[in-house]
Amino acid sequence: MLEHVLNLGAYLFCIGIFGLITSRNMVRALMCLELVFNAVNINLITFSNSFDTQQSKGEIFAIFIIAIAAAEAAIGLAIVLAIYRNKNSTRIDQFNLLKW
Amino acid sequence: MNIIELSGPLHEIIFFILEVGIILGSLGVVLLTNIVYSAFFLGLVFFCISILYFALNADFVAAAQILIYVGAVNVLIVFAVMLINKPQSKKLFSSWTIGDTITFLVCLSIFFLLVTIILNTSWSSITLITESKKFLNFDFTQNVQRIGYLLLTQFLLPFELLSIVLLVALIGAIVIARRENLMKITEKVQIKKSPKSF
């Protein structure tokens, strides 16, 4: 039971990393980053349920991660909008303005 | 598992359905070409994870997951997709390059490494150690009461800092994403005013 849910979290993490690296659209990269955050949350809450029923510190950490991920999604999407307004393209691999 | 005391087979069926939902949903987020479909599959993944939290006896986090992730983050992503969307190709799955294959092999190896670590750890010995300690004086049976008590006594500083972080993120997102016409309108007003002064 515990190992089953931990395996599910590991699978979500690896799929999130794969999508983050191979996506050419900026919004899809942010979506895969949210998948990674959710995988970490699953892990934390599973451990809190199995080992920390008295204090449930894992759930509190998961609440903090949910809030920080929401703030980061908002700022990330604002940056994506600003970039799209300037360059009129959403392909990540063609932005090289900051290259040396 | 305090909240849901279902019978054995029903519990297994619910977990199987949730697993299939999460696995197929995450594959749809990563592999589909049409990004609107990806955004809706992401909503499905968030919803399935929330029901998983209910089954793991974390009802406050499950409600927060639905409210924040499905209700705010997913809606924000759908808005961004609608503002940015350029329809590109008509295929369902995009073709893979060499870099995609290398990344797939690396991620597969990371996944197998994690699964090996999980299956080779003796979880039963850790459970015996942690169950013998009792720290909290109040024995809250409700999950929400426990979280509320801990957030306002032991985790007060991160809680207050989190509110400041959310405020800064809100202001920052508005400043970055607003239109720049405001500057040009004030410049035109100044140009009109200056010939009148001659």
From TrEMBL, chain A:
InterPro entries: NADH_UbQ_OxRdtase_chain4L/K, NUOK/Mnh_C1-like. The keyword Membrane applies. It is found in: Membrane; Plastid, Chloroplast thylakoid membrane. It is a multi-pass membrane protein. Keywords: Chloroplast, Membrane, NAD, NADP, Plastid, Plastoquinone, Quinone, Thylakoid, Translocase, Transmembrane, Transmembrane helix, Transport. GO terms for biological process: ATP synthesis coupled electron transport; photosynthesis, light reaction. It is an enzyme of class 7 (translocase). It holds the Pfam family Oxidored_q2. It catalyses: a plastoquinone + NADH + (n+1) H(+)(in) = a plastoquinol + NAD(+) + n H(+)(out); a plastoquinone + NADPH + (n+1) H(+)(in) = a plastoquinol + NADP(+) + n H(+)(out). One of its GO terms (molecular function) is quinone binding. One of its GO terms (cellular component) is NADH dehydrogenase complex. Its main location: membrane. The chain crosses the membrane at residues 6-22, 29-48, 60-84. Its EC number is 7.1.1.-. Belongs to the complex I subunit 4L family. NDH shuttles electrons from NAD(P)H:plastoquinone, via FMN and iron-sulfur (Fe-S) centers, to quinones in the photosynthetic chain and possibly in a chloroplast respiratory chain. The immediate electron acceptor for the enzyme in this species is believed to be plastoquinone. Couples the redox reaction to proton translocation, and thus conserves the redox energy in a proton gradient. NDH is composed of at least 16 different subunits, 5 of which are encoded in the nucleus. This is NAD(P)H-quinone oxidoreductase subunit 4L, chloroplastic.
